[in-house]
Amino acid sequence: MTSSPKRIAALALLERVRRHEMEDDSRALATLRGEIAELTDRGRALEGELHREAHAAGIESAAYLGDYIRAVRATLAGYEARISQITPEADRLETAVMERFREIKTFQSVRLAGLAANAAARDKLEADAQSEMVLLRWKRG
């Protein structure tokens, strides 16, 4: 069975559209993953700084140490809240990217199978035409 040129073109168009959608989602996912990594790094750095400052505190800064620890913990909680807020969106985008990839591969497989069927049909027609010409020459000869 052959595929029409319109069907092949439609499949190629769907493949291209899905690829653009996947690339858009991939860029958004990369941005969110970058933000998560940055917040995680900032949190680790802040925890390290808190650990160093808490041990290096002298008598003169002891009065401020409690406020400093509370401020650092509040900042860390803010980082964790932001990470918790954007993680579901990142997961949704990751799922969307995988789904788009599957769709692209489906469209591509169907399109390539149609092109292969068209090529096979064309080859068969050429072989049949050549056989016909050989028979006609043999009958004349």
TrEMBL record:
* Coiled-coil boundaries: 22-49
- Record keywords: Coiled coil
Q: Does the keyword Coiled coil apply?
A: yes
The protein here is known as Flagellar FliJ protein
